[in-house]
Structure formats: structure tokens, C-alpha cells
Specification:
Elements lengths: L1 H22 L12 H17 L7 E9 L2 E5 L1 H8 L5 E12 L4 E10 L14 E12 L2 E13 L14
Parallel strand pairs: 1-6
Antiparallel strand pairs: 1-2, 3-4, 4-5, 5-6
Length: 170
């Protein structure tokens, strides 16, 4: 009798593991060389996922670690993909600059994120738009992001903040 009583429990555990594995399904990069172009494609997949709240196409390595403002705030592709779904409403990004070190597989971008309003945890409810001045460092191995380190400053009251450097040519 005990064995049959465990079957529904075991079936539920197996179903949860299958669902987690499906959610964690790694995106296969098309560009796997450790070149400037491949590293920019990987980093841009994250930036696009951040803005669209869709982590399904982001080129995460399974064991990725993300640090924000000096603190680890995400480990593993499942957690990071789910976190992208909870980002505040964004109007897009602009004025993005890339600095790439191919030998060390490192990339840094500087960009401006345009937010419809400040929806950060703990922020006062506001209809005011926001510009986020964002710098993120990535380690990219064979087309997959293994590390992200983010530093940012939030400029409240306008989604039209500027960076101080001219827009990149189209």
C-alpha cells in the first residue's frame, strides 16, 4: 500500500523536473567563435530579452551568474530567463557602445534604457518615465554568456536622458 501511495507524489516530482528542464532549454548560438561579432550577438540577445521581457532567445550558458551593483542577483539560466519576464515596461534602448576584448572573451556595453515609468522594487509608484544609464560586462564563451556584471544609474523624470556622447551612426 505504501508504494502505490508514493506513485502520485513521484509522478508530480517527475512532471516538475520535466517542466523545469523544458524551461531551462538552452538556446543554441549560431555564432560560436570567440570573435567580436559573436560576443556582440550574445550580449545583444540579453539586451533585447531585457527590453522585450522574453528570455527565451537569450544566449545564456546553463551556469550563468549575474551580478548587479556589486551583488550576485541571479544564478543559472532558468532563474535569469524568469527574471527577464519581471522587468519593468521598457520603451527600448539607444546609444549603445561596445568594448570587446576577444582574447579574454570579455565585452562591456554602455547603453541607455528607456522606461515608461519607475517600477523598481521599493520605488514609489510613479507615472514618471525613467532613463537608466547602464554598463554591463559580459564573459562570453563559444557564443554563450557565462557572466554578466551590471552597474547602472537611474535618471528619474525623463525617458529622454542623454549619455553625453553622440549617437552612433545608423
Amino acid at each position: 500500500m505504501r508504494i502505490s501511495g508514493r506513485r502520485p507524489y513521484m509522478a508530480a516530482v517527475v512532471a516538475m523536473l520535466v517542466a523545469a528542464a523544458a524551461q531551462a532549454q538552452q538556446v543554441k548560438p549560431r555564432c560560436v567563435q570567440d570573435t567580436r561579432r559573436c560576443m556582440i550577438l550574445a550580449a545583444t540577445s540579453y539586451l533585447d530579452g531585457l527590453v522585450t521581457h522574453d528570455g527565451s532567445k537569450v544566449l545564456f550558458a546553463p551556469d550563468i551568474v549575474r551580478t548587479e551593483q556589486g551583488r550576485v542577483n541571479g544564478q543559472g539560466e532558468v532563474m535569469l530567463r524568469a527574471g527577464l519576464d519581471r522587468e519593468p515596461p521598457m520603451l527600448g534602448y539607444t546609444n549603445t557602445r561596445y568594448v570587446v576584448d576577444e582574447r579574454r572573451h570579455q565585452l562591456v556595453y554602455f547603453t541607455l534604457l528607456r522606461l515608461a515609468h519607475d517600477a523598481r522594487k521599493g520605488a514609489a509608484p510613479s507615472a514618471a518615465p525613467v532613463t537608466v544609464h547602464l554598463a554591463e560586462r559580459f564573459k562570453v564563451e563559444h557564443g554563450l554568456i557565462t557572466e554578466i556584471e551590471a552597474l547602472f544609474h537611474t535618471e528619474e523624470g525623463s525617458a529622454d536622458g542623454t549619455s553625453g556622447w553622440p549617437d552612433a551612426p545608423g
